[in-house]
From TrEMBL:
Residues 24-368 form the Glycosyl hydrolase family 13 catalytic domain. Keywords: Calcium, Carbohydrate metabolism, Glycosidase, Hydrolase, Metal-binding, Signal. Its cofactor is Ca(2+). The keyword Oxidoreductase does not apply. Belongs to the glycosyl hydrolase 13 family. It comes from Tetraparma gracilis. This is Alpha-amylase. Gene3D superfamilies: Glycosidases, Golgi alpha-mannosidase II. Residues 1-17 form the signal peptide. It comes from the Eukaryota. It is an enzyme of class 3 (hydrolase). It catalyses: Endohydrolysis of (1->4)-alpha-D-glucosidic linkages in polysaccharides containing three or more (1->4)-alpha-linked D-glucose units. Its EC number is 3.2.1.1. InterPro entries: A-amylase/branching_C (IPR006048), A-amylase_C (IPR031319), Alpha_amylase (IPR006046), GH (IPR017853), GH13_cat_dom (IPR006047), Glyco_hydro_b (IPR013780).
């Protein structure tokens, strides 16, 4: 097979000074209970090298079986569908003890919609009246009981001061609101939480958000959910001075190169040159709990192509990658399974998908950790090679890791320059150090391998045969 070998490809390194290493990999265990998350930290996440886990909003929310009830807060008390305050603390302690940090999905843009009711802990609320807030704490019209609705995404004020889908929009310019949110987040920090995903950050003015973010410890990881749209008034770069930002365009731009044959060859320069935000501020993902029910180009339902998209995400250098871990669903509103998430209920087609346990995805987590500790100490894609048909690419990472990705409909054999020392390595895509598919690097640093269709071969210096 003829290979094209351009010069080393350098992309920006993630360099955010947080307590969580953003050169690693974290996972979103969507709708897992606290006790199941704790078990997974000990039994799988830590051994496989995941350095963080995003958990669903832990605070009190409205009642109901739908997944989106978690995103309608009633109070900041730590009682939710995932468990009790004690179970939350136990999860944080157990995960932290094995080196997996907790990232909380923080819903602080709004409170619950509707005229009133009670939360899962039994707390009562009424129209725009909650234990932590009264009507004056929300954006409103001349009538405290009402507010405008978000309708015009070309108007920043409309997006950030009107109610999103009927959810009462908190006035984040208010010092009381800022202090209340900061109190909630700092309380979580004091319990051992190390990071925060700020839900609906797009619907909060960035400098006003900084009114509560600046009250957090400097080392806290904070990233905002900002969905960019064409000709919209709110842009991700507005938030970059204050926090990391979700880069939704990564999946939208990269996925077509995985879906269509012959296009993997174009992935060598993914990053700012594609119009994406700087790597050091970007949190990336193939899909999340919203997009997999909406406009995600690929989800677990797409099988091999989705797996390939995840493999490229973990093997490349751009951004801080988050792996989505789902449950099987057929209806947009469908809530989580009644069965707990564990090794027995993962991947059986009826309960939990557990993409983070798929062998290739899991195998590349420690691979990525080794890769960033290469010769230069910075992430780089070196020794890039692509097949004539553009379906197969290979590259090394910092003299410590090497991967071949094969999107073709057939197995592909080739000789590649790895940049690795000679020796026998484990292919972490399909094996482990106890049951290993051996790949031999020759004395000249090359390797002769056959890569199966729609999968990869990946070796690194941390996994010798």
């Amino acid at each position: 097979m003829k290979l094209t070998l351009p010069a080393a490809l350098m992309l920006p390194a993630a360099a955010v000074a947080t307590s969580i290493d953003t050169t690693g990999v974290f996972v979103h265990l969507f709708e897992w209970s606290h006790s199941d998350v704790a078990d997974e930290c000990e039994n799988f996440l830590a051994p496989m090298g995941y350095n963080g886990v995003q958990v669903s909003p832990p605070n009190e929310h409205i009642t109901g079986s739908e997944w989106w009830t978690r995103y309608q807060p009633v109070t900041y008390n730590l009682t939710s569908r995932s468990g009790s305050p004690g179970e939350f603390q136990d999860m944080v302690d157990r995960c932290t003890a094995v080196g997996v940090d907790i990232v909380v999905d923080a819903v602080v843009n709004h409170m619950a919609a509707g005229g009133g009711g009670s939360g899962v802990a039994g707390t009562s609320y009424s129209n725009r009246q909650f234990p932590d807030y009264d009507q004056t704490d929300f954006h409103h019209t001349s009538d405290l009981d009402t507010n405008c609705a978000v309708t015009d995404y070309t108007n920043q004020q409309d997006v950030q001061e009107c109610d999103l889908v009927g959810l009462p929009d908190l006035d984040t310019s208010s010092s009381k609101v800022q202090d209340t949110i900061a109190g909630y987040l700092n309380g979580l920090w004091d319990m051992g939480v190390k990071g925060f995903r700020i839900d609906a950050a797009k619907h909060q003015e960035a400098s006003q958000m900084n009114g509560y973010i600046s009250q957090l410890p400097d080392e806290a990881l904070v990233f905002g959910e900002v969905i960019e749209g064409g000709n919209e008034a709110v842009k991700p770069e507005m938030y970059e001075p204050y926090m990391m930002v979700t880069e939704f365009d990564w999946a939208q731009d990269v996925a077509p190169n995985v879906i269509s044959e012959g296009k993997l060859q174009y992935l060598s320069t993914v990053g700012e040159s594609w119009g994406l935000i700087p790597s050091e501020t970007a949190v990336i993902f193939t899909d999340n709990h919203d997009t997999q029910r909406g406009n995600a180009p690929l989800t677990y339902k797409d099988g091999e192509e989705y797996n390939m998209l995840n493999l490229f995400m973990l093997a490349s250098t751009y951004g801080y990658p988050k792996v989505m871990s789902s449950y099987y669903f057929t209806d947009h509103d469908q809530g989580p399974p009644s069965a707990g998430a564990n090794e027995d209920t993962c991947g059986n087609g009826s309960d939990w998908v557990c993409e983070h346990r798929w062998p290739g995805i899991a195998g590349l987590v420690n691979w990525r950790k080794t890769a960033v500790a290469g010769e230069s100490g910075k992430p780089s894609m070196d020794n890039w090679a692509s097949s004539d048909d553009g379906n197969t690419v290979a590259f090394s990472r910092g003299g410590a890791a090497f991967v071949v990705l094969n999107r073709a409909g057939n197995d592909v054999s080739g000789t590649y320059k790895t940049g690795l020392p000679a020796g026998d390595y484990c292919n972490v895509i399909v094996g482990s150090d106890k049951d290993c598919e051996t790949v031999t690097v020759n004395g000249d640093g090359t390797v002769d391998v056959t890569t199966q269709s729609m999968t990869a071969v990946a070796i690194h210096t941390g996994a010798l045969a």
